[in-house]
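Co-fold these.
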Amino acid sequence: MTAMGKAGFGAHYAVHLPAPDDFEFWRARARALVQAEVPPDRVSWVEPGATGDLFAGGAARGSARLPQPLADAPPVRASQRFLAIARSAALNRDPARFALLYQVLWRLQRQPRLMEDSADPEVRRLEQLAKAVRRDAHKMHAFVRFREVEEADGTAHFVAWFEPDHHILRAEAGFFMRRFANMRWSILTPRGSIHWDGETMREGPPARREDAPGDDPVEALWRSYYASIFNPARLKVGAMLSEMPRKYWKNLPEAALIPGLVATAQARAAAMVAAGTRSERPRPSSLAELAQGIAACRDCPIAACGTRAVAGEGPPRARLMILGEQPGDQEDIAGRPFVGPAGQLLDQYLEAAGIARGAAYVTNAVKHFKFVARGRQRLHQSPTAKEIDTCRWWLEAERALVRPRIVLALGASAARALLGKTVSVTRARGRAIALEDGAELWVTLHPSYLLRLEGEARARQAALFAQDLALVRARLEAA
Ligand code: URA
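Predicted complex below.
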């Protein structure tokens, strides 16, 4: 059977896409058209609401019904590379993208290695379209800023406004769902909106900038924090503009400061050199200010994870500081340190050792919960040494305010945060280590380690843990 016989000689076909980002729909139709041997110049791909759609109305304006694939048609060839690029390119706002995709798919049937020819103008164009989409997605991950809104029932809802260049909103929904699994949030864009209530994703209509909240107190804080960490000596305007293009500035609270900071950078850098300091960041003067600072901190990627920063808690002048690694799932939800399973185990051992938790200041080396989402579960991930070191500034500020005589580090991350280098718990435990401010550091295991052990191994480690706590108790009495 000939193509002309089945597809109709000279007939033109219009394929109406149900949505501008519906790659799977394009793919199914494109495969059928290839198998019906309909060449690219006889197909129009029409997006919803497209103007200049010569074939809108289908047969009424001369467009034929789509042909059936030929019964003896060979399978459609589409390499993995083509599919990966095509999936992204389909989200580009270029109105010619679906026609180009079909053109390349058509050629692939005769030139299976076409995608390897990066000098081919059509392959190059497809790669450019895909690259622009990937860049847009990257900017969305980096520059979406949620503002907190209180719902009528008192719950928090986080709303962000973003202006993507391409049709990436639906494709990127999964990224935000995984990252902010336990928050209620909405992302509003001029192309549509998405809403997550912690369980279900809903799509909504396009929005306007005014539909999203403007400045809020968290934002004001974040702005002042950004100004304090902005390092004028490191300023590279070109690099900054390529990473943070001007078009995103209007939605970033910190961006309002950029022109002023850039303008004064030279003078401020000179002043820093003169003063011999590497950072102008002012230390918080109270624990409340510190808590606000960590809530606004975006110094490392973990800060964008989870629900909230978890500040330390306890008497502001406690003699003992207990330092964990980072908040876990339950701490992230409750906004308090050591309230989950590891915290409950810690409480039991503290009580058995005669140490009153209420008299200690309990905090963490890293103030945000780092996790990977697995379905509805959020699985703990250890912070990297760099993340611990980045958060160390806050811990030092906290220690400077509380000024504990004794610091008990639970596990290697906490010990690293205090010593600035990695140490083995086995080697460091059982003795006091002098900290630079005169306090004593005691290192022991993290209670979540005990939770992972069973049988004899657990009994052995539990005895060592109890022994470490008894030593701390004795020092507290002596100090
Ligand atoms: N593990 C920690 O290190 N800290 C917490 O707050 C909870 C669990």
